[in-house]
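TL;DR need structure tokens for one chain.
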Amino acid sequence: MQLKIISAGAGSGKTYRLTAEMVGLLRQGVRASGIIATTFTKKAAAELQERVRVKLLQEGLTQQAEDLTHALIGTVHSLGVKLLQRFAYEAGVSPEVSIIAEEDQQILFNQSLSMVLTEARVIQMERLCDQLGLSGNAYFDWRQEVRALTEVARANDFQEDVLEASKNASFASFAELLGPSNPNGGAHRGDPLPDFESDDRTPGNQWRYHPENGGRCQNPATNPPRTNP
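>> reply
TL;DR here they are.
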């Protein structure tokens, strides 16, 4: 298999270069079915295929132009589907493969999420959103945030230890933006993060958000919230 990587920025003539490369290969006798060309959008794929066909016809290569329909030209997702359908038996999957519509992806992810999250965890997430003032935001859904993190973790093959380190580093950088800790008690910069994933409901692990105390999380077992007289 021969691979050629061409690095180019936006508007630098990528389609023109790909057209020239494909026409050159077909002119040399390479079979159209042996060519794979990927693009970012369906529109770009259609444009590339049309440009190659027109160029072949201009050069009198009518047979190659007709065979161009056998070339794999499309987006990464569409090519993946075609390859799975073609080699379904070898891959051990059903040939009935389709791309999940964008509007259905979040729905299916939420259904999968409901199978691994307990009802108590969902209630906890909703309560945290309320405490952070995010529940009234029509554009925010914590499930979408979980999905985005999941996609990044899967794309980069992040393991649990990497995600844990990233979580702590993110909170540490956020803590630098906070003001001094409440002199009357509460969480201090540098303290271990409260374990929001723990199902332990002992007083030592219960944290609450108290706007009357400067909006900081406090452990009611050691620092009960102050009330205004």
